[in-house]
Amino acid sequence: MNTRLAMTFKGYLLTIIFLSSSSTLYARWEKPEEASAALLFHSEYQIEKDGTYKEKVEEQLFIQNDRGRDMFGTRYLSYSKDVEKIENFTAHTNNGGQIFPIESSQIVDEASVSSVYGFDARYQITYSYPKVEKGSILVHRHTDHVLSTNFPG
User: Fold this and answer.
1) Measured CA angle at 78 (ends 74, 82), to 5 deg
2) What is the pTM of this model?
3) Cα torsion 87, 119, 149, 55: sign
């Protein structure tokens, strides 16, 4: 019995020592010259009387280094197919004025989460930019047409 009590006490003691030991972590914001990419985002809304709307989106990503190429060469656009429709989707890579459009084979539109009672089915457009390198500008445009609103009236 004493051995069992000693093992329990030893376990508690080790737990207390582990939890009371402090680990210090340090972090800082990246300097602008260290950033992997810079984003220019523009959107315009056209709101209808019934609350539905269209949002025209243009996004430009300026790739600053190899990490940016790896992080942003493939992008994802999530939407709810039950209430919205993605229209006029285009994307391309601009390398010093030379334009490389995304081929339709590089765009995948599929369910990302199945519909569960009380929740909308989520879909995701996955697209990969061609010829991404340091200095590339990745451009995509689309219109998000929201067909129904959460609040009547």
Assistant:
1) 150
2) 0.73
3) negative
Q: Report which of 84, 83, 89, 80 is spatially closest to residue 113, judged by C-alpha positions.
A: 80
Residue with tokens 């430009």, as numbered in its chain: 60
Residues counted in the chain: 153
End-to-end CA distance of the chain: 72
* Pairing of β 98-101 and β 84-95: antiparallel
Give the DSSP H or E segment for 91.
strand 84-95
For residue 107, what are the CA distances in angstroms to 55, 101, 127? 21, 11, 4
The answer to whether 128 touches 91, Cβ cutoff 8 Å, is: no
99-141: per-residue pLDDT in tens? 999 988 889 999 886 656 656 678 999 999 999 999 999 999 9
Tell me the two tokens of residue 98: 């030379």
H/E stretch holding 3 reads: helix 2-20
Give the angle 46-50-55 at the CA atoms, nearest 5°. 25
Which two three-digit tokens encode residue 142? 């689309």
